[in-house]
Design goal:
The chain has 5 helices and 3 strands. By secondary structure, it is mainly alpha-helical.
Length: about 130
Amino acid sequence: MTAGITVDLADPVPPYEQIRRQLSSLIAVGILEPGSRLPTVRSLAADLGIAAGTVARAYKELEQSGLIESRRRNGTIVVGPPRVPHGTAGGDAAVMAAVDALIRTARDAGVSDETLIDLLRGQLASKLDS
């Protein structure tokens, strides 16, 4: 399970937020489907070489957002993708197609994944200010 999850301790983004973002993205794109089991807090923390409290915080925030659910004897499972507002049924497919096109364009241009993410975050942040 940790193949898709990494933590960069040099990144200014806190490790719990890095984990939360990555898991949220994996759920949103359907790689982690509803019913999928997540590793235990201790197991993921050991695999990533970080404190269990860091993973627990990421899981707690994902649970609060309705993406995962912790069950005493069944562990932590994916509940589903983020809820889409009523009336945007076709929006998900259109957004995913646009994201796929953006990724293809960036890779064709030789832009690294990290740079693409930074560019996207910068653009999103600039749109919040306007």
